[in-house]
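Field reference: sequence -> structure
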Amino acid sequence: MKKIHNYLKNLFIILLYIIISNTFYSNNKALSNNYFMEKEHLVLDFQNNILWLRCSVGQVWKNNTCEGTAIKLTMDQVNQAKEKAREQLEGDWRLPTRKELESIVCFECGKVKINSKFFPNTPYEPFWTGEKNVWYKNFYWSVNFFTGHTFGRFPGTIPNFVRLVRNR
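Structure field:
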């Protein structure tokens, strides 16, 4: 009976992984021009109904690109960055949800798994989401733009890159 239980448990895990993977990869078409409209330092995302800052925190929009060096922040520092964005750019800027950040992954793009037309000079490393990993309460979800994969293995005290969004 125990062998059957373990077999069914492993089968369930495999099936769940296949379903999640197929759903994520088949829906990952968000970088088509139909979903985005660029306007200066912003990208309007019609699929998620949000505005993205085109540059990572630490960079500035200048000469139609993101100039400067993106910086890594801890979660405490992210709150300070959001406050600065509110002061300088107006609006309620926040970290993207896991779903929002995953939606801009581009597996067909080159070394950096993000469309550089909309998000130039993006570091190919993990970026924070605003969501905690429910299985590990001190860890947050991040999306890695080198692999395109999502991980929930970083505590908020570890610095990662940041791209801010706000609702439209």
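Note: The beta strands are 36-39, 42-45, 50-53, 60-62, 65-67, 126-132, 139-144, 150-155, 165-167.
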